[in-house]
Design brief:
The protein has one helix and 16 strands. By secondary structure, the protein is mostly beta strands. It is flat, with a radius of gyration of 20 Å. This is Elongation factor P.
């Protein structure tokens, strides 16, 4: 266990509170006009999946658990969950759907992700920052709409809704940012 200040906590970190481990789902540093800055954290208890919110002063010390962080390749999804393989040892691990969460729309066969494991069980996943997806449907361009004026909604092959520039149509491959689901550019392939 390592002690760190609360303001340094990030999504995917694992903390120890009262002998129980929690994985951080979101962390936000709040600086009010008056008073002490605080770190607001939403966490999930690893043992039973219970979600908890906690608030610490940004300078408070928090116990951060040491987890194994390694790259894994996504293989497939079935009734047991999502299956990943460690590229060097070919060791496979099944990850439960509640760990993947809304990130399921980013997963593509062969995709390399960072899995955080504790005592052999996956507790958190980190997706690549940018992924390539194909547009399956978009709304038609409104006449007189300029390229810089606005974006239009589009649906990707994985079921993700994104906003794209007017010149992007169905069948176009684009790159999106997984942190906020925003359009980055056209894919160069």
């Amino acid at each position: 266990m390592v002690k760190v200040i609360a303001s340094s906590l990030r999504k995917g970190n694992v903390v120890d509170m009262d002998g129980r481990l929690y994985v951080i789902l979101s962390a936000q540093n709040i600086h009010p006009g008056k008073g002490t800055p605080v770190t607001q954290v939403d966490m999930r208890r690893i043992s039973d999946g219970t979600k908890v919110s906690e608030r610490w002063r940004t300078t408070e010390q928090v116990e951060k658990a040491t987890v194994d962080e390694r790259e894994y390749d996504f293989l497939y999804e079935d009734g047991e969950g999502f299956h990943f393989m460690e590229p060097e040892t070919y060791e496979q691990i099944a990850v439960s759907p509640d760990v993947i969460g809304d990130g399921k729309v980013y997963l593509q066969e062969g995709m390399r992700c960072w899995l955080k494991t504790f005592e052999g069980a996956c507790i958190a996943i980190e997706f690549p920052q940018k992924i390539t997806v194909e547009i399956t449907e978009t709304e038609p361009v409104v006449k007189g709409q300029t390229a810089s004026s606005s974006y239009k909604p589009a649906m990707t092959d994985s079921g993700l809704r994104v906003m794209v520039p007017p010149h992007i149509g169905p069948g176009t491959r684009i790159i999106i940012n997984t942190e906020d689901n925003t359009y980055v550019s056209r894919a160069q392939d």
